[in-house]
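pls ignore typos typing on phone
ME8 + seq
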Amino acid sequence: MPGDKTFYITTPIYYVNGVPHVGSATTTLLCDALARYHRLRGEPTFLLTGTDEHAQKVADAAAKAGETPQAFVDRISQNYIECWRFLNISNDDFIRTSEPRHRRVVAEVFRRLQDSGDIYAGQYEGWYSVADETFFRDSEVADGRAIETGAVVERVTEEVYYFRLSAYGDRLLQHIQDNPNFLQPDTRRNEVIAFIKEGLRDLAISRRNTGWGIPVPEDPSQVVYVWFDALINYLTVTGWPENPDWEVLWPADVHLVGKEIYTRFHATLWPAMLMGLGLGLPGTVLGHGWWLIEGEKGSKSKGNIPTPQDVAADLAARSGASPEVCVDALRYYLIRGISFTGDAEFSAAALVDRYNYELANDLGNLLHRTLNMLKQYAGGTVPGGAAARTADGALAFLSREVTQDAERAMTALDPAGALSVLWKLVGAGNKEIDTQAPWKRHKAGDTEGVADALYAALETLRIISVLLAPFLPHVAGRVREQLGLTDAPRWADAAQWGLLPAGTKTQEAQPIFPRIDIKRNANPLPAKEPAVTEPAAPAAPTADLITIDEFARVQLRVAEIKTAERIEKAKKLLRLTVDVGEGTDRQLVAGIAESYAPEDLPGRKIVVVANLQPATIRGVESQGMLLAATDADGRIILMTPERLDIAPGAKVK
Ligand code: ME8
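k done
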C-alpha cells in the first residue's frame, strides 16, 4: 500500500580515492541479496549505495592525478556505478555527496543542531589521520601513528565547530539495552558499549576550508568534517525534511558496514546525531569483518586487493563459463565466505574450489543429470500425476524445512547462512537421485517410479531456483529457463510443493558451470561438462599422463641456498633464502627441518620450481618449492645437480 514503510537498506558510501574492489563489492552484494529477498517476498524495498566525495584523501588523490576535485570525483564515481552494474546490484538510488540535494540536507542538519545548542564553536588541538579521516586524542596516538589503525597522524590546531557527543552516552546505552537488534552481531555490540562507557567526548565536526567540502552555513571559512557530512547521506535520499513522505523510508532498517567504521561512526556518532535531530534510529547497524590478503586487510590505499572485474575475467578464462555466470560465482563466493564476527582470507584458489565443488559438481550436476534423464526416459516433458505422489517424499519435506530456515537466516541478516542451508537441499537432491536410481527403475520397466523420482528432482530444482534468486540472480534465471519456466520467481512459491506443471517442456540440458581443470590450472579453452546420466562410478585408476607441453609449464631451475633458519613453532619447516639467478634472492619455506640442520645447508645447490604461485605457510611467504625425495624411512633427500659448478638459474628439463 502506498505510504507503507519500505524495507530500507544501505551500504556505506565509498570513498572515491580508488576503484571498487572485492571488499567494497562484498558489502554491496550482501545488501543486494537482502534487498532482492525482500522484493521477492513482494515487500516494498529500497537499496541505497553511493560515493563519499568530500574526504581530504579524495582531494589529495585528485591533486595527484592533476585534476580538480570535482572532475576527479565525477570520473571515479562512475567506476562505482559501472562496477555495481557489472555485479548486477539492484540499487534503487546512487547518492553522491557532492550533489546539491545532499549539500542542502547537510546544511539543514548543521543549522538545526546549532540552533539546539548541540553544535558550538571552539578550538581543536589534537591529531588527524587522513587515511582514516578521523580525529584522535593524545592517548590514542603513539610514535606518530594512530594506535587503533596504524595510520600516520598529523598535528592539527584549528578553530572548529564541535558536536556535543558527550551529552549522548547515557541515552545511547539505554537505546542499546532496550533494542537488542540495534547493534549486530553481539560481539560488536559489546565493543560499542565498552567504547561508550570509556566516556564520549565532544567531536570536532568541521575543518579549515581549503576549497573542497560542504561549507559550514554562515561560516564559509570552514567545511563540514567528512564523516559528519557522509553519514547524513542515509537521510538525504528520504527527501527529509521537505518531502511529506520521507517516513516511508525512514528510519532505515539496516545499515551494513565493515567493522572499521562501525563503533565510532555508525554505532555512536550517527545515532547521537539522529537523537539530536529528534529522528528515529535505524533498526539495525550490522558490521562485518574484512577480506584479508595474505593475512593483511585488503584496501584501496595498499592496492593489494583485486577488482571484481579482474576476478570474474580470470574465472571466465579458466572455466569458459559466460561472464554473467562468473559474476554470479563471484557473488556466491563473496557472500558465502565473508564473516560477520571475524575476518576471512580472500583467495582465488578457494573461489575456484567453490566454483568446482559447490556450483559445478553440486548445483550444475543436479540440474544437468535431472534434465538428461528426463529427456532420456520421458522425452523432456515434466511427468503428470507425480506431483501428488511425491508431495510426502523426503525432498518435499526437506524443501519446506530449508525454505523456512533460509527465511530465518535472511530475517537474522545472515545471507551466508541462507546459502549454506540452501546447499543442504542441493546436496539432498543429488543424494536422492542416487538412492532412487531412476536408471535402474527404467531398466526394470518401473515407469511410475522413474516419473516420481524425476518429478521430485525437478520440483526441488524449481524451489532451488527461487531460493537462489537473491544471491545468483542470473543463474537462477538460467535454471528456470532450462526447467521450462517462463515466469519470474516469487519467494512464496518456494514454500509450496507441486507447482511445476505436468506437461512442461524442459530445455536441453546446458552446462552452466563448465568445470575448471585444476591440474592444468589456467584453462583457456571452454571445457565441456560431461553429460551425466548416472552417478559417476569411482574413477578407474589411470596413469594420469600429462603432455610434454603441460610439463613444459613447470619451470625448474638450479638454485643455491644462501641462508637457512628454523621457523618458530614449526618443527618441520625451514626458511631458506636461495639464489635462482635473478639478481635478488627468493625466500622458500621447505618441510625439511627433520632431515637437514640449517647450518648444513648454505652453499648447497638444489633444484626449485620457479613459477609456483607464492603461498603463505605459517605466516611466511614461500616463493617457490624445492625438489626432494622421501626414502623408505621417511627421510627427506634433496635433489642436487650432479656437478656443483653449474650456475644458479640454469634450466632443468
Ligand atoms: O569508509 N573486506 O569508505 P571506504 C571487506 N566513505 N570489506 C571491505 C574491505 C575489506 N578488505 N575493504 C573495504 C568509507 N570494505 C567511508 C564510509 S559511510 C557513511 C562512509 C568495505 O571506501 C567495508 O564495507 O573506505 C568498509 O566499511 C567499506 O568498504 C569502506 O569503504
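The two ends are 73 Å apart (CA to CA). Residues 12-15, 23-24, 26-27, 52, 230-231, 233, 257-258, 260-261, 290-291, 297-299, 305 surround ME8 (CB under 6 Å). more later
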